[in-house]
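[PROTEIN RECORD]
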Amino acid sequence: MEEKKRFSIGKLFEQKPAKEVLGNKEEKPITRDKEDVIGMLLSGEPITTEIKTSYGNFVFRYPSGSDTINISRRRSEYMGDHPQNTFDAGMLYQFQKWSTLDVLVSKVPEKFEDVSTWADFPDQETADEVFNTGITFCAGIREKIKIGRLGKPEKSDKPENT
């Protein structure tokens, strides 16, 4: 009778080098340019942009998975124990804006360093400007990720087969 092979749960969770998991067969270190957003995200390197306003510069970063969770938690804190349907669309937008900025803005001009939350920020038009510019920045990063995943579209003179 043939003995069944057993495996160890520990082996399932064994850490493997990134080059083995991702299939890199070369031993040379991986180098990347500033446009390699996938590499930056995998290495934990923050992807940021500086947003210039009349008050000075704000630094906004592309969210990680844990940032997204923290934004949701922060939004829930703003809502308190009230269900979402008790707020109008304008207030829900404010909660989303404030929670996003609370988590993703890593640097503010010196005069605002003591402001603890974006809900307390004295100029909500500037908060809107930073938020909208940051969201546009994130959309650009997502587009670069999409291009990196799918490759740049090639123009072809050949008609498609149908």
